[in-house]
Design brief:
The protein has about 400 residues and is α/β, with parallel strands linked by helices. It is about 30% helix and about 25% strand. The strands form six sheets. Strands 5-4-3-2-1-6-18 form a seven-stranded mixed sheet. It has a five-stranded parallel sheet with strand order 8-15-9-10-11. Strand 20 and strand 21 form a beta hairpin. Helix 1 packs parallel to helix 8 and helix 1 crosses helix 9. It is globular and about 65 Å long. It starts with a strand and ends with a helix. The relative contact order is 0.16. Bound molecules: flavin-adenine dinucleotide.
Length: about 400
């Protein structure tokens, strides 16, 4: 009997985990199913570019996983039952759309990512746009295209996504009146050089910055801040963080208050050992005892770690440790520039930065590299696949010998 591995979500982390598992394990021993509602991989780190009017290259999952042994299932996950080890899905493929179905698993990899998070601020859900999902980015793109010269756009949130969105929109549409409402000081987590570069760039692009502006209400034509300021806005873009899907919260899995699955250093659920969780959907402890932040930077190594741990445990071999640490924060500031802020292993800014076109080029390389890793799911690993020990009714040593 094959060991059934079901991977939920074909974003950066689910796709990488599925490909790595396929490369690590013997095809006769496992059946790997990758569940995703859409037929193509979404380059989420470029959604602000999509919103600003650029086209993203289509990346069909079928072509990516052809010949790898991973079966792509077009379906939306509606529930997970970790006691019965089943996943409820409704198909989204053309022929069988909306057909409900139950998938059984022996090992589950949960990688459903995250979406918009408006923190319950009044009016945000109704009036604010977002760039955390492709449909959201496309709606924003249409809305921006309909705006005439001089109309006000406010990006709420001064973090990485807010900076990227505000600069991208301002560069693409210099005729608009773009502003950025940051809850703290502009780039206040960056080094002095990093902050200065961000300041120069946003000034150069004509972005008005409202600092220490905690937005507490959104209306159709404005936002207001906790200290009473009003910023006119025909379009509000909300970027204050990401929230995870409520699916995990509804299971018996141990999750945080926000619904992220709590995992150990091998990305295994601390409550259910046959469940692994990676990427934005999971919370793991990183260097310095701090939780890893929602990002590709930590999500991709999480996926490597989960796949390697699953393969090793199934084969009865020693579980390897994939080092997870940060090296830099890569921030695009429009298409012509950027900032690479180098950081400590636990993500604190150091003095060293790369700026301007070199930084834009570096960031582009990182984005391309992340997508290349997804698009070539089985590249770069040894071709000898391990046998699954319990399927062969043999000892771990025998399984090793068979590898
Ligand atoms: C505009 C923007 C810029 C960013 N820039 C950076 C950056 O420069 N560097 C960086 O490290 N991070 C960046 N991030 C964050 C990064 O994109 C996320 O941390 C990363 O995508 C998380 O990977 P993931 O696999 O967990 O989730 P995702 O990439 O979001 O993938 C989740 C997958 O699950 C699927 N899914 C969702 N719900 C269901 C369901 N019910 N059933 C089945 N499938 C489902 C989705 O369709 C998707 O394919 C950025 C994010 C945004 C929005």
């Amino acid at each position: 009997m094959e060991h059934r591995i079901v991977v939920l979500g074909a974003g950066y982390t689910g796709a990488v985990a599925a490909g790595r598992l396929a490369r690590r394990l013997h095809r006769e021993d496992v059946r790997i199913t990758l569940v995703n509602p859409e037929p193509d991989f979404v380059e989420r780190v470029r959604l602000h570019q999509l919103a600003a009017g650029q086209e993203l290259r289509p990346r069909p999952l079928d072509a990516m996983f052809a010949g790898t042994g991973v079966a792509v299932k077009l379906a939306k996950v509606t529930a997970v039952d970790v006691d019965r080890r089943t996943v409820s899905v409704s198909a989204t493929g053309a022929a069988d759309a909306a057909e409900p179905e139950e998938l059984e698993y022996d090992t589950l990899v949960y990688a459903l990512g995250s979406g918009r998070h408006d923190g319950g601020v009044p009016g945000a859900a109704e009036h604010a746009h977002e760039v955390s999902s492709r449909p959201g980015a496309l709606r924003l793109r249409d809305r921006l295209a309909a705006l005439g010269p001089g109309r006000p756009v406010v990006v709420v949130g001064g973090g990485l996504t807010g900076l990227e969105a505000a600069t991208e929109i301002a560069e693409a549409r210099p005729d608009l009146d773009v502003s950025l409402a940051a809850g703290g000081g502009l780039g206040d987590w960056l080094s002095e050089k990093g902050r200065a570069h961000v300041r120069r760039t946003v000034d150069g692009l004509g972005v008005t910055v409202h600092e220490h502006a905690v937005v507490d209400a959104v209306e159709a034509d404005r936002v207001t801040t906790a200290d009473g300021r009003t910023v006119p806005a025909d379009v509000t873009v909300w970027t204050t963080g990401f929230a995870v899907h409520p699916i995990a919260l509804a299971t018996a899995l141990e999750v945080t208050d926000g619904g992220r699955i709590v995992v150990d250093a091998t990305m295994r659920s601390v409550s259910h050992p046959d469940v692994y969780a990676v990427g934005d959907a999971a919370t793991a402890t990183g260097p310095g005892g701090k939780p890893l932040r929602m990002s590709c930077a930590s999500g991709v190594p999480m996926a490597w770690q989960a796949a390697d741990a699953i393969a090793a445990r199934l084969a009865g071999t020693k579980v390897p440790r994939v080092p997870i640490r940060y090296f830099q924060q890569c921030i695009s500031l429009g298409r012509k520039g950027g900032l690479i802020q180098f950081v400590t292993a636990d993500d604190r800014a150091v003095d060293r930065v790369l700026t301007g076109r070199a930084a834009g080029f570096y960031k582009e390389l990182i984005c391309k590299g992340a997508t290349w890793g997804v698009a070539h799911p089985t590249a770069g690993l040894p071709t000898r696949r391990r046998r699954v020990a319990q399927q062969r009714a043999g000892s771990p040593a025998r399984a090793r010998a068979a590898a």
